[in-house]
Amino acid sequence: MSDYLNSVASFAELRSAQNGTWDNISPEFAARMKHQNRFQNGLDIARYTAGIMRQDMADYDADSSQYTQSLGCWHGFIGQQKLLAIKKHHGTTSKRYLYLSGWMIAALRSEFGPLPDQSMHEKTTVPGLIEELYTFLRQADARELGHLFHDLDAARSAGDAVREKAVLNAIDNYETHVVPIIADIDAGFGNEEATYLLAKKMIEAGACAIQVENQVSDAKQCGHQDGKVTVPHEDFLAKINAIRYAFLELGVDDGVIVARTDSLGAGLTQKIPVSRDPGDLAYKYNAFLETEAVESAEDVREGDVVIKQDGKLVRPVRLANGLYRFKPGTGEARCVLDSITSLQNGADLLWIETEKPHVGQIGGMVDEIRKVIPNAKLVYNNSPSFNWTLNFRQQVFDAWVEKGKDVSAYERDKLMSVEYDGTELGVEADKWIQSFQADSSRQAGIFHHLITLPTYHTAALSTDNLARGYFGAEGMLAYVEGVQRKEIRQGIACVRHQDMAGSNMGDDHKEYFAGEAALKAGGKDNTMNQFG
């Protein structure tokens, strides 16, 4: 017997034990509501999705073509529509996640209004968005299962046993829209206790993977901005420990921690860690400091900090704001050390924030990391902060120069120009962009590719297109031709927006609760019937 029919039978048995007081309760309706609410809370989701991520990581270790992808979403509806589209176009949600971007929370969800990505937004907004995303994904499940239940009723009414069996099979094997979310906790919003408390809220909301970065919490900057300041390894590892304890306390034993290093673009540190033994972590961190030799007390100014380094007294270069400067050109070496240290101390995945999408640069760092951690894997930001067109056209240009190919028809600094779109170089660059994710997963250890804020840009672009026409000469045709007609012909589910918002589910519930007395919204006068 199918799982669904077993559930119906179980509720029928439970009803019969109530001595007639539950006779108004339909076992079938109860079974339907239970199937439409598979996940009882966020911890159910976190445990389920953590298992998915762990299996995906194992699949990638066995075959680098099995990388995973996600798109950043700033609202539950956007996340829901992404997953509906994935299932519609690709048939399965396997290897597809959602990303929760701290940048988009700051820009779009803060009560202060739009903010830069500097951890100034309310920390409670982060778990709030996780809960919202999963609320919408669960509603997508309930809606689609509701349609299947109507199909089941229709098959039974028609006496079509073959169709009934097929629908029951679809119900029993239904694939949920609930997928892993990699959630950005920024630099932890305070000390390690603050990080632990926020991590708990995020996990309770459903997060199975938390990304934390090694910047100073109260001076956090977007990874693609200047002025980044890192913390010593000991400080960062305390926050990794805090997140792991939060996972373990809540019973998500296989929760995933993504350790992000901003060292490639961060030339400053806030403090000098205490080294107790030559070669310890603090010693390695301090070795990257830019210093000046101290020969005598005359070389030391009032208030200067002096440390002993390899048997010599040196003065770390300190800026007017009290921050210390790293030696120029040490970013990649610091990224490698950060990454190895994080993986050796509880992190599961790495995130290296780079200034350009270059397979060779990323792969070079990963090769060094894998000399120590052979199965090291990256989460990589396919960032909208990169000018992808210009970057890859210049990469192709440089590769052609190295091969001795004639590039006299191109100006390297002007390759963004539309005049190069149909050229041999432009076409080749587009091929490199198209294959970037597969290439870098194969050559640079990237397990997960994400775009942090794509829906920020798609919302702006689509709104611009509609506003241009609707408030201009096109009038209503701008909406009809540019939006609704495309929705209908592309089979976009939310063209029936009342159904997407839950109107039909509400009608079902009214019928469950009130029977023939239910006042339903989906009758013949509902204008949604125009969409079939």
From TrEMBL:
<dbReference type="GO" id="GO:0019752">
    <property type="term" value="P:carboxylic acid metabolic process"/>
</dbReference>
<protein>
    <recommendedName>
        <fullName>Isocitrate lyase</fullName>
    </recommendedName>
</protein>
<keyword id="KW-0479">Metal-binding</keyword>
<dbReference type="InterPro" id="IPR040442">
    <property type="entry name" value="Pyrv_kinase-like_dom_sf"/>
</dbReference>
<dbReference type="InterPro" id="IPR006254">
    <property type="entry name" value="Isocitrate_lyase"/>
</dbReference>
<feature type="binding site">
    <location>
        <position position="260"/>
    </location>
    <ligand>
        <name>substrate</name>
    </ligand>
</feature>
<dbReference type="InterPro" id="IPR015813">
    <property type="entry name" value="Pyrv/PenolPyrv_kinase-like_dom"/>
</dbReference>
<dbReference type="InterPro" id="IPR039556">
    <property type="entry name" value="ICL/PEPM"/>
</dbReference>
<dbReference type="Pfam" id="PF00463">
    <property type="entry name" value="ICL"/>
</dbReference>
<dbReference type="GO" id="GO:0004451">
    <property type="term" value="F:isocitrate lyase activity"/>
</dbReference>
<feature type="binding site">
    <location>
        <position position="184"/>
    </location>
    <ligand>
        <name>Mg(2+)</name>
    </ligand>
</feature>
<feature type="binding site">
    <location>
        <begin position="101"/>
        <end position="103"/>
    </location>
    <ligand>
        <name>substrate</name>
    </ligand>
</feature>
<feature type="binding site">
    <location>
        <begin position="223"/>
        <end position="224"/>
    </location>
    <ligand>
        <name>substrate</name>
    </ligand>
</feature>
<feature type="binding site">
    <location>
        <begin position="381"/>
        <end position="385"/>
    </location>
    <ligand>
        <name>substrate</name>
    </ligand>
</feature>
<keyword id="KW-0456">Lyase</keyword>
<feature type="active site" description="Proton acceptor">
    <location>
        <position position="222"/>
    </location>
</feature>
<dbReference type="GO" id="GO:0046872">
    <property type="term" value="F:metal ion binding"/>
</dbReference>
<keyword id="KW-0460">Magnesium</keyword>
<feature type="binding site">
    <location>
        <position position="452"/>
    </location>
    <ligand>
        <name>substrate</name>
    </ligand>
</feature>
